[in-house]
Every structure is written in structure tokens, then in C-alpha cells.
Amino acid sequence: MSTRAELVALRSFLAVYRTGGVSKAADALALSQPSVSHHLRTVEAVAGRPLFVKAGRGIEPTEAGHALAAEIADHIDALERAVDALRPTGDGQAAMVFLGAPHDALAALVVPALPPVLASGLLVRCRTGLAAELVPAVLRDELDIAVLTQVGGAPTRKLYLVHFLDEEFVLVGRAGEPPYDPRQDSRPFAGYAEEMPMARRYFRECWGLRPPAPALTVPDVRAVAAAVRAGAGLAVLPRYFVEDDLAAGVLTVLHHPAKPVTNSIHLATRRGRENLPRIRAVFTALLR
């Protein structure tokens, strides 16, 4: 096997290791599945032992697979960074960054921080989604950067994570609403999902209880806030998202816990890509 062929095969092996499957790796690399499978067999032949075993409907790395990935990942990533740096950015071919975030974080935290990035000549393409959708997209290199409101259960060894900020959750209602007491309150709640994760966390930490089932679910935090403004119910929302409404007296905080209920938000990219100039530029702008 030539040196070039070895590098191509190792790159495919690393993609399979990071994405968890031949099909996903093929998509990420823009190769056919048979090509990636051939590369994998080639690397296993050189290694002299299996690098993956079947696990349910997928595959998982053997100890030899973990060891090889740890040995080559930094080197393969360094080569990809070098190639990426050589790609032209002039003559109308500007570098582009693909970024994903939840609706509310994108509107309130990400977009306002982007003007310096855009002024530098970078192009930014955004999409919305939650962590469960964004993490696989980062690992497949469909996204360069994701804003994650939760990292529990994510394959953190495959991600480069940076703490972005701690969001505070507040229980809000329309101005004039009385304080909320879960032991004697039957006012309806609105949430962006049936399980209302923000309200669930708030109720657990404040009272050791589960929140009431939502009277209204709308898959968009902006619409949830609009529902509260209209008097359709109460909600637990990030303070940064309702700060203007609170300051204007449109909404009011209905409970003040002894200790603020917070959640850590992280910026993520695939491990090994954090030093790419275009990714580093966006990280820097968001963290200012």
C-alpha cells in the first residue's frame, strides 16, 4: 500500500471511528460506502487485528481501534488543517462557516456577535436545532460549530467543547400575575416540548417536584414567550431571552429561588478542528 493510499485509508478509519458507522463516514467524506469499507479492511489488514466489532445494528471500536484512533487523530487532523488553510479565499471564494444553535440562542446570543466575523470576509450559514441533532451534524462535518444547551450523553471525547455562558431560567407570567406557588396553583403552563425540559429542571431544583403537564406546546421558544405575553399561561424561559420584556414591564418573574437555576451552554466543534482559522475566528467573536 502506498503512503498516499495509507493516508486515505486512515482518514476513512478515523471518520468511521468518529461517526460510529460506515454509512455516516461515507457521507461525511463524500465517498461511497464500498470505498470506505475497503479502506477499513485495508487498515485492519495492516493492523493484523479487528478494529471494530458489531454492536446491535451498528459497530463499535475494539481496544485496538481506540488505540489507533488516539495515535493518528492529531496527525490526520493536522493534515486536514493544512489542506484547509491552502484553500483559496479570494477572487469571490470566501471561506464559509456552518453554525447550528437553538432558535432562541441563535437570535439572542449568536447573531448579535457575528458582525466582526462578517466584516473580516467570512461567510456564515446558520441552521437551528437542539443538541440531539446538532452533535451528529458536527461529527459528520455538516456543521463547523454548534451551540449546545446540553452535553450530557454527547460523545465528548470526539468534541472540542468551550464553555460559552450559564443561562439562568426564570418562571415568568404576564405583568400583573401573582407569585407562583406549586402547592396551591393551577395556572396553565406553555412549553416548547411536551416534557418542558427547562420547567422540569426548574421545578426539580426549586421544589423537588415535576412541573404540571403543559396546556400549550409550541416548538419555538419565541412562540412560547408570545403565548405568555398574550396571557395563555406561564413558562420557564432563559432570562436573556425575556430580559427586554421584563425591563419593559410586559412580563414579570413569578418566583425568586434562593439560588438561581442555571444551565451551562457550550460551543462545540469536532475535536481536531478547533484551530482552523475560520472556526477560531467565530469562537473568538462569540466568547468576547
From TrEMBL:
Keywords: DNA-binding, Transcription, Transcription regulation. One of its GO terms (molecular function) is transcription cis-regulatory region binding. The keyword Nucleotide-binding does not apply. Pfam families: HTH_1 (PF00126), LysR_substrate (PF03466). Residues 1-62 form the HTH lysR-type domain. InterPro entries: LysR_HTH_N, LysR_subst-bd, WH-like_DNA-bd_sf, WH_DNA-bd_sf. PROSITE patterns: HTH_LYSR (PS50931). Belongs to the LysR transcriptional regulatory family. This is DNA-binding transcriptional LysR family regulator. The lineage of its organism: Bacteria, Bacillati, Actinomycetota, Actinomycetes, Pseudonocardiales.
